[in-house]
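Q: My collaborator sent me two sequences in one message, no labels, and asked for predicted structures for both. Can we handle them in order? The first one she listed is below.
A: Yes, handling them in the order given. First sequence, followed by its structure tokens:
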Amino acid sequence: MIFAAKILMDEIFGPQNCRAFITHKKCSTKNSTRKSYGDIADYLLFYSKGSSYTWQRPMVPWEEEQAKREYPCIDPVSGRRYKKVPIHAPSVRNGETGKPWRGMMPPQGKHWQYSPATLDELDAKGEIYWSPNGNPRRKVFLDQSAGVPRQNIWLDFRDSTNQNLLTTGYPTEKNYDMLKMIVEASSAPNDIVLDCFAGSGTTLGAASELGRKWIGIDNSIESIKSIFKRLHGGMDVYGDYVRKPQADSSNPSIVGKTQKPHCPAFTFWSDHEHQQMLQQTL
């Protein structure tokens, strides 16, 4: 299914504007696995309209063991964790970065990454490591890193039907943190976010929280109820639907809400055919 969608998207936006093909791991299989591999993959297609587009690259926080491997050194003065990196770069340059520093020239075929004056400043701040044989390297500190750039395989976003997550109860509801990350990465405050298949309104709630304007479209009355619940009533912990009864997801007046809505005001629009049904629902 996703590959047929990609063919259509390539035709609309151009294959050169396909920025990423993302695989998201689902929490459970949605098909029989007796005669095939279990299907635990969802897919996201990231397209832009052209070569210039809004992009704030998402970062994944360092895991403790991963950070220790990447930043193995401890500064004896500050106690900060750091790694050592070269202070030179490939190619020869004739400007300041090609001049001697502390009586040393850059290695053959290379230049300093910084001017001698900047290297002096870094050294004065204790950000240059000197090896026993006098080889300088720059200290890059862990606490200056925002994390690891997110790649195109996502394993850390659980389904919204996990019993510990907040949800509207809509059957195909997507993970809120995942949608929030996508909206934040590809839009700026006051931009308009369009969701043509709004479902439970996860994207709309994320856009509202992030200060974006939004338009949500859906032809399902159950979707409208869920969106109203999310934006006006608040959500509940999904819980164990097998062992205990839950609040009626069709009733916007929810008892025991655990999250307040993000959106104080919004407007519903409907065609004439659905106006009466919408009025009865709201």
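Q: And the one she listed second?
A: Here it is, processed independently of the first:
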Amino acid sequence: MHIYSQLFAVLAFGEAFALAATTKAKTCTTSLTPKYAAPSLASGYVARLVATGLTTPRSIKFDTNGALLVVESGVGVTALTLDESNPSCVIEKSRKVVVANNALNHGLELSPAGTTLYASDTGSAYAWSYSASKQSATSRKTIINNMTNSDHTTRSLLLPKSAPGVLVVSRGSNSNLDPTSENISSGTAQVKAFNITNIKQPLGFTSSGKLLGWGLRNDVGLAEEPKGGGIYTVENSADQITRNGVDIHNTNPSEEMNFLGYLNGKSSPNQGRNFGYPECFTAWSPSTIPAFKGKVGQQFAIGTIGPGNNDKLCSNKYKQQAALGFHPHMAPLSILFNPSGDTGWVTFHGSWDSTVPVGYKLSQVDFAKGAPVQPSNSTTAAIDIMSNANTANCYNTTCFRPVGLAWDKNGNLFMSCDTTGEVYVILRTDGKPTNSPRSS
């Protein structure tokens, strides 16, 4: 059973503290207050602001001394020193710019020993020698290059624990509907894995690496499922799509969770396949797709349907379908698993291409045996944990827009919000770590 219900109550921060005081979570009198309506939390959770005033914070990662490393897009990498003496009341003590580089925009990783820092800009991924005690990064070298393209410019990074010495890199497409991505040699709309052990020269993205998947429009979120070692992504799908001249963009296509196989020696038929983009997309609302006979989770062709452009060419025989779909335009940007592998946490940054705002929230997806519990045709796989008080008004007023996720040493969940320049911590009100197994 879940510890939360799927019903939401808007918890003002004072009310959240009162709730915490009646449980094992301690009262926090030093928390910051957001400059917008307090977020809504699912029963059993409380969220508290840890830091404000950051410049477009994106990916986050804890170093071995407990400092939170933050990519501030357009600034570089910043270390936040936190006071976690009371895990229920984390506060920022100080911050320091570790890497001053205004080209860095999203990607961030740290080696298992905590001595090598990785970050990326639109064209390259870099490595620095990192000292957690000094909060300093030195001796930069380029490890992956030749990734520059327009539109989708973030280059997400992942170091899978099951494959030491391997760096996974996601590269998006050149545009909303990018015809160059139909060519596997373009290198766009792809996720690849690179052996970066003892490299002497930068590895070219297009010419090097192991292809995990292509036809992946903009898979910003990367994660390794901890029990089986499967590589999962979350994808931002296309905007403004039509079919047979009918605008269907409000209800299709789904955002996606994709399974790209393994890097630990296990085999998977998914690995290296084409996932459909820019020809095929995942159905969220089949009834609104003209002349479509498929179901939720199946792929469909866009544009004018005919002999050379039809849904048969989008079947799983030719294109790998998504593991799960999410409501169109919610813009998933991160996925992070708990250690038991029974929960994947997903940030939904929020829409621009939807008549009614959607996303702007943090959700959970239930997993078991290395795969989502819900089938690929589910429309209820995302279980909302933290959302804006009035998402329907997010086009007209300030809302938090979540991006990065990280676990601290206590098992509590930290989340960056880029447009508001914030970092939150999400706690369980029963005092257990946020990353506890789902059944606990």
